[in-house]
Design brief:
This protein is an all-alpha fold. 68% of the residues lie in helices and 0% in strands.
């Protein structure tokens, strides 16, 4: 129940910021883990959240605010028993993200996000960004070894990559299934 409250509070910005959520996709990781908690407490509400994530309308802003939106949608599909659709989504992510990781960059990673790109080479920023996402896709497909290799590559470029570090910690010693 404590974890549930943390995941729920992770979907809210503090009132003193004077800002709100611009795109619901930023909430999907916390919503997904909230649903995982609810599976143990209230299965009906878990299904409602999984459906909300799996059936979400996704646009370019969704990817801007939560680049892993399709990963969380696929995990929700898996929990709903839609394994074929989830696998198809994750394989499409792999194809798209591997292509993007190896593309020459003339735009996004050269000029934005401003604070990241000014501190590192655009090629390294691209490798980190897509390497992490590719690791998630492998994780969702149950290929723990490939996921670990991706996260290790990301951490070799940037040892401070919080999300790759967290994935390695969360799944250390677990079977090839995502949380």
């Amino acid at each position: 129940e404590v974890a549930l409250e943390y995941f729920r509070s992770g979907q809210q910005y503090p009132k003193n910021l004077g800002a709100g959520v611009w795109n619901v996709a930023v909430k999907y990781p916390c919503m997904y883990y909230e649903a995982r908690c609810l599976e143990h407490l209230d299965a009906d509400n878990a299904v409602i959240l999984y459906r909300k994530i799996a059936e979400a309308c996704v646009d370019c802003f969704s990817y801007m605010y939560q680049p892993a939106v399709d990963y969380y949608r696929a995990l929700a599909m898996q929990r709903l028993g839609q394994s074929g659709k989830a696998t198809s989504t994750l394989n499409e992510c792999l194809r798209k993200w591997q292509h993007e990781k190896n593309s020459r960059d003339y735009g996004y990673f050269r000029i934005t996000p401003f604070f990241h790109s000014m501190l590192e080479r655009p090629a390294d920023a691209r490798k980190q960004h897509y390497g992490y996402l590719i690791g998630l896709a492998h994780l969702g497909l149950g290929d723990r070894q490939a996921a670990d290799n991706c996260f290790a590559e990301v951490l070799s470029i940037n040892s401070g990559h919080l999300w790759a570090s967290l994935e390695q910690l969360m799944h250390a010693g677990n079977a090839a299934k995502p949380l």
